[in-house]
Amino acid sequence: MAPILSFSNPAVSLSNGISRRIFSFSTVATTSGIMSASSTSPTSKKAKTSSEPKPLIVAVIGYTGGVGTCLLSAMDKIGLKPHALVRSSTMTIDGVEVPVNFAELGNRLLEAAESQGGTPVIADVTASADVQNEYKNWLSRGISVATANKGIFAGEEAKYQELLDSVVPPAKLLHEATVGAGLPILGSILALKASSHTIVKVEGVLSGTLAYVLGAVAGGKMTLSEAVTNAKDLGYTEPDPRMDLNGMDVARKAVILARLSGLTGIELDKLDIESLVPKALEECSVDDFMSGLSAYDKDFAARVATVEESGSRLHYAAKVDVDKKLVSVGPMACEASHPFNSAGPDNLIAITTNFYTRPLVVQGAGAGGDVTATGVLVDILLCRER
Prior knowledge:
The chain folds into two domains: 27-183 and 369-382, Rossmann fold; 194-364, Dihydrodipicolinate Reductase, domain 2. By secondary structure, the protein is α/β, with parallel strands linked by helices. The strands form three sheets. Strands 6-5-4-3-7-8-9 form a seven-stranded mixed sheet. A six-stranded mixed sheet has the order 11-13-12-10-14-15. It has 14 helices and 15 strands. It starts with 26 loop residues before the first strand and ends with a helix. Helix 6 links the parallel strand 8 (144-147) and strand 9.
């Protein structure tokens, strides 16, 4: 059986740039950050006082959205008050609402950080390219960024590298929530690399929607069209289910995983992506897509049956093969012993290294406002200077 990572209490090691996390069972989270449980002992009280972390000066961009409201709630639970709140057209700083000005936002955060002896952090929970265009400016001025916005991390490699190069310490660029919401996936990969592991392969079930659909068609329980209709009715899909079924969201996450695993030259538009959307239904209306999908049920059922006759299961997954320098996205036939067969509706990542020849598995809810918000919140706490 593959080892499964427990992550409910992360003890964190900080690094500049992308987050790097070391996980331990003997830790607790506190309103002043993340600390080892052993630091609560009387003998360590003096040491704790001498390394008291600086206060966090946080701006939340996208606070009115689903993840944004969950993030504010999570921050409130640990006593972390936002210094600034930003939405599409206005921003509120120190209780005063003014038009959005990203340069001014950076200035005000730096002023507050200097006056309070704090650490400035911008949390981006939008999907906005305009906000991401400001990252380099903020990072170059020493303002950390914690984000769930995956665009630039899965975008053109040259721009991605420019962004990494723009980080001026002590600023940090953290984006754990861009893959698997709050699951400790990216940090786990980086921690393994930092501790002398060589990443061999990373495989991931990264879409709850596609996990549901492939699970529903397994064993002939439903046809493809029935599974997609059910998923849409249950609210598991985008309003246009093709946005899930085309695999592009999984592909963006695959690019991020590949880059963190050490691969270069990986571009989204060059990936091997197998869509579950029949070509004849790519450009029609949503209603026509839903009514026309049943014409493909028989062929897809035959494909599922062929895989299952050999004792395997079909899963929609991303595969990053570091040795072969290949990244693929699409239905994957997995033998009975493969970790994916225990994923259910969860996201699941299996990380194979030179030491973990049986993969390390990270599994849990990979979507939803609350879990995504907690992933961003952990990154915010990681930005704290001591």
